[in-house]
């Protein structure tokens, strides 16, 4: 992208980035970080406690724990800005930390430096029911927001399962079970408050912008959504809200083959049924759920469905979907109509990770996700299940199939590197197959440390070099979450 | 954003950008352009015909016509790439040209150079009905696409009114009457094929990516959507399609005051009615429509509505909306149920621009749009109408009010600069008021030449400098549509 003369000028900066580890230990000792960051916040908001360091170097994924040198707990965006100014001047790596529920090592600190924990950013700053939007600080979790909204007839539908912070969800472009109807974070963020590498604070969608749509300049909001902390630190987000539907009904239907379940989903979409959730679970996932969540379903490929809308609309959706299910050999629906039953059902779905882990004590779970055009799902699903079976690994397959998105959860022995290698290669093959089928190596988990090579395969080196040139333009010293997304 | 040493290195490039006009005439004569571009395409695909130059220097907006030196009509992306390589080497400005239906001067060539006309890019490359997506070349218009899709049960819902090319619609982040239900270009583009300033060709969403969602790297697709040709030339787009609804019904309802009409829209949204279109027209627009499109509506603030869905769902939506309209003093619905009547009605809506122009012969129309949170619409609408009345200008107000987006069309005498100044200042005041009310200076027309100062007001200088640093990273010699969005 850059002219050759510029490329020469920029090379020293690029080279120095690859030596950040060395710079860190050479120039900024932990004691200096403690002292200087303590001046910006207050001494008790900077920690080198081993528990803090250990907790902040990891997430819920299988990647190696890499601890930061210090953890800082700023109390407001101005303190975040001061921390970044200092770190930028001193070339200290900075890793933002929300709830630590990521899966691709985004919160890890392989080059040391400072973890910025946003746990104090828990204010819901504004809710405008008449405009269906709100502004929250980055540390607010989606569950806390929905708890706050519950009596206002409003909700925020993006549900990644774990009780993630909304700042983290913006960073990783999270989605979840409701995306088929309500979209992902990309469609539900109107504006972000971001602290840049040099400490400047911007609002990506206008200084106080919260218009439903805008054609004013580059869409920085959606550049920062999914940038995994590599372009700036998100301190607040303006989000779209939705009216709580008059009626919500959930159901379970089971099939003889995964193909029959997927064909059902394709037909539901072709019939333009505004389905709110449609989740696939393979027979092994059902076994794990029955054991862990005390459900009593048959060990068969299963769809978990949710219908939202008015009473009439929900009845009509159910009628259409029931008939499609029947045509594909599905069982009769098992219903969950009241709130308590619905909660139990979706709790079981959201507990699949823990249910899978519980199947083999002393193992760890390697979770990975891909997304393909829905017509390619049956082929990818069959290939993946066959590959898992062949490997002898215990693994479950679940997915937001309405989007063509699914996950495998593969158990490995954390003490045996060869065991990790086997599941890692399974994940790689699934991702490569997804790319081959016009899909993506990750629908919602992000690239982090784990999928850098796959990103390159998927996008090609020219496209990734465009991403890198944007990174370099916004963070010339590569202090922001270095080594994530690309090297 | 850049370190001070880098800033020094980059300054000469920045400075030279501001002298592009001089460089152009000094280094690359029109005859050289003709000769060199003729080698890349073939001689008949490069033109200096005065009609071609005049047609390519303007769009449908009121901005000054600035002609390119030559127009080139490449036949494929490889030729676009070669043209860009040449222009990048020689520092020649390049302005992409779709259908010329823009409104903010995006197609104008104030610094001369080459207009790249994509009229030969008319292939629909692929339609996947089972995945609800397609890939089209940039010159295909949305009407041509929908004509092609009509027998497949599918449609592409973004309708900016004019028969714009889909490449142009990507560039300006177009939307239109269906955005309230189906989203804008941002929500309906899955991937873009883009030729970069240096001639490299990338696919922003993966080499052959068409997953419904992705968390793989930066969201370049939505960076290029709305970038108005300043970051690359879009040569193809992969788009989401939607199932044609079983039933589509349109209706007109009229109110005593604009406030009553807007309150109705707010209540429709609060009741989570999945309305497909809800368009506001003020009484003056209705007068113009009656005269131009031979409709026979009362001269009153009016909503034009469309309901999509199954028979049952449409009936229920209508029942809810009719009751809300009645509560707000609306008249009974005037129906348009069959395709022909619906077409007439929406044709009238889409002809408002020409209807307005027809009211005062020998005038030109200054169209501008803003978007605000819907609760702020009544205040902005009232202020704008009062301002128009006070000025003595003839102007109509119409809008996609479900999104909080509306347009004014203001007539001026093209021979009288003072007359232009009056309407321009009216537009500026409306945009400033929209920004003050947490909105944006443009919901769908873009910044182009006309709203650069407003962008700065809306986003602040730090945010705009981030946009500029991205521009510089991707187009270091500022050859791509220079002087648009920012200086």
UniProtKB/TrEMBL annotation, chains A, B:
Main location, first listed in the record: mitochondrion
Needed co-factor(s): FAD
Alphabetized Gene3D superfamilies for the sequence: 3.30.465.10, 3.30.70.2740, Vanillyl-alcohol Oxidase, Chain A, domain 4
The FAD-binding PCMH-type domain, residue ranges: 64-244
Basic and acidic residues: compositionally biased ranges: 55-64
Record's keyword terms, sorted: FAD, Flavoprotein, Mitochondrion, Oxidoreductase, Peroxisome, Transit peptide
Record keyword Mitochondrion present: yes
Locations listed in the record: Mitochondrion; Peroxisome
Alphabetized PANTHER family for the sequence: D-LACTATE DEHYDROGENASE (PTHR11748), D-LACTATE DEHYDROGENASE, MITOCHONDRIAL-RELATED (PTHR11748:SF111)
Record's protein name: D-lactate dehydrogenase (cytochrome)
Organism name: Galendromus occidentalis
Gene name, Swiss-Prot/TrEMBL: LOC100905989
């Amino acid at each position: 992208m850059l002219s050759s003369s510029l490329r020469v000028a920029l090379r020293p900066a690029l080279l120095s980035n690859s030596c950040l580890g060395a710079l860190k230990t050479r120039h900024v000792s932990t004691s200096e970080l403690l002292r200087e960051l303590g001046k910006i916040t207050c001494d008790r908001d900077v920690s080198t406690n081993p528990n803090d360091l250990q907790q902040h170097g990891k997430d819920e994924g299988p990647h190696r724990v890499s601890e930061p040198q210090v953890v800082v707990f700023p109390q407001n965006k101005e303190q975040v800005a001061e921390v970044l100014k200092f770190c930028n001047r001193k070339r200290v790596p900075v890793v933002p930390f929300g709830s630590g529920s990521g899966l691709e090592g985004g919160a890890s600190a392989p080059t040391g430096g400072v973890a910025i924990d946003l746990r104090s950013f828990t204010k819901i700053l504004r809710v405008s029911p008449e405009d269906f939007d709100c502004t929250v600080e980055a540390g607010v979790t989606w569950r806390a927001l929905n708890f706050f909204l519950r009596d206002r007839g409003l909700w925020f539908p993006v549900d990644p399962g774990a009780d993630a912070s909304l700042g983290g969800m913006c960073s990783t472009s999270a989605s979840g079970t409701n995306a088929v109807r309500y979209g992902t974070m990309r469609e539900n963020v109107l504006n972000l408050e971001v602290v840049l590498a040099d400490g400047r604070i911007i609002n990506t969608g206008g200084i106080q912008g919260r218009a439903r749509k805008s054609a004013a300049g580059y869409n920085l909001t959606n550049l920062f959504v999914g940038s995994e902390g590599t372009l700036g630190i998100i301190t607040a987000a303006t989000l779209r809200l939705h009216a709580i539907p008059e009626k919500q009904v959930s159901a379970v239907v089971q099939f003889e083959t995964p193909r029959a379940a997927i064909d059902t989903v394709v037909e539901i979409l072709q019939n333009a049924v505004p389905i709110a959730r449609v989740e696939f679970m393979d027979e092994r996932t059902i076994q794990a759920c029955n054991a862990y969540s005390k459900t009593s379903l048959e060990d068969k490929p299963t769809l978990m469905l949710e219908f939202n809308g008015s009473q009439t609309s929900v009845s009509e959706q159910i009628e259409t979907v029931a008939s499609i299910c029947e045509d594909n050999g599905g069982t009769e629906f098992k219903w969950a109509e009241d709130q308590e039953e619905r909660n139990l059902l979706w709790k079981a779905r959201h507990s699949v990770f823990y249910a899978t882990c519980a199947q083999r004590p002393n193992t760890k779970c390697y979770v990975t996700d891909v997304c393909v055009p829905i017509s390619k799902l049956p082929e990818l699903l069959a290939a993946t299940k066959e590959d898992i079976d062949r490997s002898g690994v215990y693994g479950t397959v679940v997915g937001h199939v309405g989007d063509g998105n699914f996950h495998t959860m593969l158990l490995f022995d954390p003490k045996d590197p060869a065991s990790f290698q086997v599941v890692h290669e399974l994940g790689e093959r699934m991702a490569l197959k997804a790319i081959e089928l016009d899909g993506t190596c990750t629908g919602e988990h992000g690239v982090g440390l784990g999928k850098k090579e796959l990103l390159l395969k998927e996008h090609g080196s020219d496209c990734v070099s465009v991403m890198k040139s944007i990174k370099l333009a916004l963070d010339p010293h590569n202090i922001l979450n270095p080594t994530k997304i690309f090297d």
